[in-house]
Amino acid sequence: MIERVLVTGGAGYIGSHIAVTLLRAGMEVIIVDNLSNASELVLDRIEAITGRKPLFYKADCRDKQALQGIFNTHHVNAVIHLAGYKAVGESCEMPLMYYRNNLEATLVLLEVMRDFGVDKLVFSSSATVYGDNVSMPVREQAPTSVTNPYGRTKLMIEDILRDVVEARPEALKVALLRYFNPAGADESGLIGEDPKATPNNLMPYVSQVAIGKRQKLSVFGGDYPTEDGTGVRDYIHVADLASGHLEALRWLDEVVDLHCCQPINLGTGVGYSVLEVVSAFEQVSGRQVTYEIVDRRAGDVAVSYADVTLASELLGWQAEKTLEDMVSDAWRWQQRNPDGYGRS
Ligand code: UFG
How far apart are the C-alpha atoms of 199 and 106, rounded to whole Å? Predict the structure, then answer.
């Protein structure tokens, strides 16, 4: 039985939604986050949603002593590892910072888990590990390749985890969850995505245009081989993504195959173009989203969407929410928190 889960990076966008889901499932949640891209305010919001507050440690995962102290104090049954830098463009400018941070945090965490006998890990990987040479929908067996240092840290960590499981299969079981494009927010409007600077990702950018914080969206490329010429992605509601983590934990708890380091796609299996997202946002918000089609963004693929068969077979999980749900929840969060956690 999994009773107590440590979530690294648990105060961030995805982590906070996972905390809500686990608390609702009756689990105890311990968040470890250095708040480099998150706000402590999120803890009160999680409590407002669930009636329960996660335990919180402001600590960096690279701080071995801090992690040892936490594992010493609490009997942790499983870990969900989200902590890491995640901006593709920034990773191209500062590759060393990305390798140092993302790899070291994982290595330290794995050492401490080993020392304390914690044998279940869910890792936040990314569809970025499929690179741009695969046909869609993409299955987990597809060849991997990456186009930037951020993606490479995800792929390297997948490889590291495989080696660690291979060396001592009785000591660690791992689910490598390959996220497609997380979007939306908790339907309460209390927690959501809060980009510190200019958003890199489509959904928060569009919502800042709709609210009037930004003048117009640059649509990166109008000449892709897609129906309307713009890029197609598999957007998945962050609450669905969170429930995928809960099911992955339950699966790890039950699975008997001890050679287990299993990649699993988390997506909806459906792709939407940039212009379809823009139009869904305009409909839900009643606001105009001004846009301009500009050059393609370096490193972008034309189309990306998941084959979600494996998640359904192994975890009994599938995404339930629609693009409209994602857009209306993102819009509710944006309206109620125009400055994110900053001055709301
Ligand atoms: N887009 C725009 N304008 C913007 C932002 C995005 O047109 O201002 C387009 C992109 O070109 C793409 C789509 O919107 O077609 C989605 O772009 P995002 O930046 O939101 O997402 P990506 O698919 O590029 O990246 C996401 C994650 C990465 C991950 C990657 C690969 O953010 O962490 O998926 O799976 F690596």
Answer: 26
Ligand 1 in reach of 127 Cβ (< 6 A): yes
Catalytic residue flag (residue 150): yes
Q: What is the 3-state secondary structure (H, E, C) of 205-256?
A: HHHHHHHCCCCCEEEECCCCCCCCCCCEECEEEHHHHHHHHHHHHHHHHHCC
Catalytic residue among 13, 130, 150, 179: 150
pLDDT tens by residue, the chain, 344 residues: 899 999 999 999 999 999 999 999 999 999 999 999 999 999 999 999 999 999 999 999 999 999 999 999 999 999 999 999 999 999 999 999 999 999 999 999 999 999 999 999 999 999 999 988 789 999 999 999 998 999 999 999 999 999 999 999 999 999 999 999 999 999 999 999 999 889 999 999 999 999 999 999 999 999 999 999 999 999 999 999 999 999 999 999 999 876 779 999 999 999 999 999 999 999 999 999 999 999 999 889 999 999 999 999 999 999 999 999 999 999 999 999 999 998 54
Q: Which DSSP state fits 58? A: E
Q: Is 13 in the pocket of ligand 1 (CB under 6 A)?
A: no
| Helix, strand or coil, per DSSP, at residue 96 | helix
Q: What is the dihedral of CA 234, 238, 242, 245, to 10 degrees?
A: 30
Partners of 236 in beta bridges: 182
Inter-helix orientation angle 323-336/202-211, to 10° = 50
Give the Cα separation of 121 and 124 in Å (integer): 10
Which residues fall within 8 angstroms of residue 91, CB to CB, at 6 or more apart? 85, 98, 148, 149, 150, 151, 153
Q: Which long-range contacts (CB under 8 A, 24 or more apart) does 195-200 make?
A: 195/340, 196/37, 200/87, 200/88, 200/89
In the reported structure, the alpha carbon of residue 202 is separated from the centroid of ligand 1 by a whole-number distance in angstroms of 6
